[in-house]
Amino acid sequence: xxxxxxxxxxxxxxxxxxxxxxxxxxxxxxxxxxxxxxxxxxxxxxxxxxxxxxxxxxxxxxxxxxxxxxxxxxxxxxxxxxxxxxxxxxxxxxxxxxxxxxxxxxxxxxxxxxxxxxxxxxxxxxxxxxxxxxxxxxxxxxxxxxxxxxxxxxxxxxxxxxxxxxxxxxxxxxxxxxxxxxxxxxxxxxxxxxxxxxxxxxxxxxxxxxxxxxxxxxxxxxxxxxxxxxxxxxxxxxxxxxxxxxxxxxxxxxxxxxxxxxxxxxxxxxxxxxxxxxxxxxx
Length: 283
Fold this sequence. Notes:
Keywords: Lipid-binding
Radius of gyration: 19 Å
Number of strands: 13
Pfam families: DegV
Shape: globular
Organism: Halobacillus aidingensis
CATH class of the largest domain: Alpha Beta
Distance between the termini: 31 Å
Helix content: 40-55%
Strand content: 15-25%
GO molecular function: lipid binding
Number of domains: 2
CATH architecture of the largest domain: 2-Layer Sandwich
Mean pLDDT: 93
Protein name: EDD domain protein, DegV family
CATH topology of the largest domain: Hypothetical Protein Tm841, Chain: A,domain 3
Low-confidence stretches: none
Strand order of the largest sheet: 10-9-8-13-11-12
């Protein structure tokens, strides 16, 4: 029986312990700071925020290119000879990374590519669903596993509040005027993934502590999320009291397993410090 190996991008923010547990292979995306190219994960996220504080410049990001994917897939095959690779990729609607994976995969056999149409915890939720399924059914046919992953893609729901609108604006996610109004009125936009695109759907006023609870309440009202597993996403700088409170609220709503995921460099460059998000899978 041939071994199935799962892979994804660093933009999934998959925790290291879970990547190791399930042997998920992660290819880094890129962060550009002061003209220097850094592999996502190779520098502390705090350096991104320190750079912004000192220079008022926000780093940019770039996707994994086709050549890097070729090397990535080749390395997986070297480490796991004769394996079947199932790559669950960062949304193609916000990055060229998935298309580059498609180009690279033409050089290989037995690689399945799935556009997760999601990012950070929403992407991680899909990857971990696949990993858990593979662990429970080690003899599952790869085509069947791919079908199950594809079926869960539209059920992965992500919503988040960025910590800094300037970071979101720099990434081209909101207009200058929207950012200015948000700063003046202390409006915090809710960003959701809709058909793979980042869309501002709701706006919350007031402190982050109030906004996070309202976000979570709206999230649960809109989506029938499986209570078995929930993912909270945070970027460095989120108040610990907010984290404690949100965990209490989640447990009060019947969630059995709550996992906190720290936004890595790729996501933090677009959301800023102190951001909060939630991800889960619908029934």
